[in-house]
Input
Amino acid sequence: MIAVMGLERDQVAQIVARVAPPDELVVANDNAPGQVVISGTQAALAATERELRAAGARRAIPLRVSGAFHSPLMAATGEALSEAFAEVEWRDADPPIVSNVTAAPVREASGIRKLLARQVSSPVEWVASVQRMLEAGVETFVECGPGAALTGMVRRIAPDATVLNVSNAKTLHATLTALAERDRTREAAFAGMSNPGARSGAGSGAASSGGPGASS
Output
């Protein structure tokens, strides 16, 4: 796998299609604007790296991984996962999960199980998944686990969103504090909206003592 910096997904996809067939090379991760990962055979990756640099990629970084993840080359692994998942009890999700395979919400247990098995051999539609959540009204994203790679990606995809990270006790405390402050701000705003008389009364007082200019 190779992480490509400085080219958009469409540009990388055109190069990939020109270099090798889809059973040997694919766009594997659409991580953020200008950050894409490709996956495939060693020969196809080597040929593509030269093409990417020629096309103006700022960086093309070979990743230290044990397989061509999120490509058709992992189909057999996906089948093995499907068989293993069939032995486990699954439950519907509440709230629904946005699948990185389809960038669509899924709630049914059977659908979640199938999509997780497909994920290992399918592209990760991270940009589309974040955009789908934004469209659904999500304003706050919390990454849980070591590192902050997803945090950085979401900030590039959704610069206006609140993005938090929990990787240790210190960041857990900071995240809980930030979420509590967010909730207090929302509650205060809602209280003001539900009691417009209080706001209009204050405004009337300002207008009567200072004139129309003061109230504006």
In short: Strands lie at 2-5, 25-32, 35-40, 59-62, 97-98, 105-106, 140-144, 162-166.
